[in-house]
Design a protein that fits this description.
Elements lengths: L1 E5 L4 E9 L5 E10 L5 H14 L16 H4 L5 H25 L2 H13 L15 H13 L1 H8 L4
Antiparallel strand pairs: 1-2, 2-3
Helix pairs in contact: 1-3, 4-6
């Protein structure tokens, strides 16, 4: 969670707090940012730099929380959207890799189909995610969810 406020000295203070999976919360920092640099990218970069200096792994962040100010909560260019991009991009890259692993190899595709047959699972196909339309990602995700167990067995990650 982060918030900012501008003080009389023309600096913007940014506070950062972190909640861990355990019921623990830590105050991380109170940072000064010049008011003229008060834009989402500068604040995002400042937060990331501070978290990295504290050895906090950015890939393990699963949720961010900010107030409703557009600087933080703006859907496309707010600080929150910039954190969201990190999380979503990694998930979509995994989805693309999964599709390529199964469908770009005749052996992988045959193995996937065989696993579905052995499990008496409906013969479903993965849908290639597209880079230009969110709807194609939705269809790809839904297909992967419907085939989850056969996919895990095919890729050797089922436990």
């Amino acid at each position: 969670m982060a918030d900012e406020g501008t003080y009389i000295n023309h600096y913007q203070n940014v506070s950062i707090c972190i909640s861990y999976c355990e019921p623990t919360e830590s105050f991380i920092s109170l940072l000064k940012v010049k008011v003229k640099d008060k834009d989402a990218q500068t604040i995002f970069d400042t937060i990331v730099k501070e978290l990295e200096s504290k050895n906090i792994d950015m890939t393990k962040i699963s949720f961010t929380g900010f107030d409703d100010a557009s600087l933080f909560s703006g859907e496309f260019s707010g600080v929150s959207a910039k954190f969201h991009i990190i999380e979503v991009q990694e998930s979509l890259l995994t989805l693309k890799s999964l599709f390529n692993f199964i469908n770009r190899s005749s052996i992988g595709l045959a193995r996937f189909n065989d696993v579905q047959t052995l499990m008496k699972h409906p013969q479903l196909k993965l849908i290639q995610p597209g880079d230009t339309r969110w709807l194609s990602y939705s269809r790809s995700i839904n297909a992967a969810i419907r085939c989850y167990e056969p996919l895990m067995i095919t890729t050797g990650t089922y436990s």
